[in-house]
Amino acid sequence: MTSSEFTSNRDNYCYRHPDRQSFVLCQRCMRTVCPECQTQAAVGVICPECMKEDRKNRTPAQKKAARRWGGGGAIATATRSGRPVVTYALLAVTSFIGLLQLIPGLGPQITEALRFNAVYLYPNLSVFPFEPWRLLTAVFAHGGFIHLALNMLALWMLGQILEPMLGRARYLALYLISGLGGSVAVAVIAPGIYTVGASGAIFGLMAALLIVGRHIGANVTGILIILGVNFAFGFFVGGIAWQAHLGGAIIGALVAFVYTRTRRREQRVWQIVLLAVITILLIVVVFIVPPLVLLA
């Protein structure tokens, strides 16, 4: 189901498949293309017609180089297919770390090395070493098999929708910045507690899907209900860091809003600048607010 706003805006549909919605534009002709019609370029994606025109205009030397270096290898095939390879990579890395955490003797050491606590950010206020990378490493560690399985299932489902819509680089940035936002929220709201898990990043993906869906005119009621139910669940079950859910959702929505306002090719620089500003502001907040709380 889609809203009348979406139906009336043909720019939200793939120009080759009028029944398929998309969020990605061809970087040459700036028309909307669905995942099936996307070919990964050096920057962004291009549509089949532009690809055909590009191949027609290649010099003999360029054609020879393409045959020599791009001749149908596994990596090239994966790139052209539009498959959510970033999602698969995140699933593989996170699942591998999660399974290592289940090994007796080794698991606790890995958890200890990756988990996040605000005390690792302020060596002057504690006896703990300064290890700011834990803001992100905690995203790849989990508190048990069920925790890991639920987050990976959500990542697999959301990634197959969002990655083709946003593109791989934007999708990865969204995931990592949302995960960072979740850790920062924990440090600000509940300094001193230990957290692990990709939940902050997952909530960022859900919030982003809500914003992007609303922007293209899709019916987002179902997404909103799922987001609300999952967020409320954290208040009634012990051991869940709802602060990470809140921070990830807020930052994910903010990043998605930036994406919806900087879709055009000439706005790419502004998109990068705005994402950098969000990241810098998170770092500034996490190093200013919690010390004031801890010193109070």
Please provide a written account of the structure.
With 296 residues, the protein is mostly helical. It has two domains: 4-81, no CATH class; 85-295, Up-down Bundle (Rhomboid-like fold), CATH 1.20.1540.10. 63% of the residues lie in helices and 1% in strands. The protein has 13 helices and two strands; from the N terminus they run αββαααααααααααα. It has a two-stranded antiparallel sheet. A hairpin with a 4-residue loop joins strand 1 and strand 2. The longest helix has 28 residues, at 268-295.
Q: In CATH terms, what is the fold-level topology of the largest domain?
A: Rhomboid-like fold
CATH architecture of the largest domain: Up-down Bundle
Instruction: Show unreliable segments.
Output: 64-81
Number of domains: 2
CATH class of the largest domain: Mainly Alpha
Largest sheet: spatial strand order: 1-2
What is the total tally of β strands?
Answer: 2
The percent range for strand residues is under 5%
Number of helices: 13
Elements, N to C (H/E): HEEHHHHHHHHHHHH
Nearest-integer average pLDDT: 83
Helix/strand structural class: mainly alpha
- Report on the biggest sheet: 2 strands, antiparallel
Rough shape?
Answer: elongated
* Residue share in helix: 55-70%
Distance from first to last alpha carbon: 52 Å
Radius of gyration: 21 Å
CATH superfamily of the largest domain: Rhomboid-like
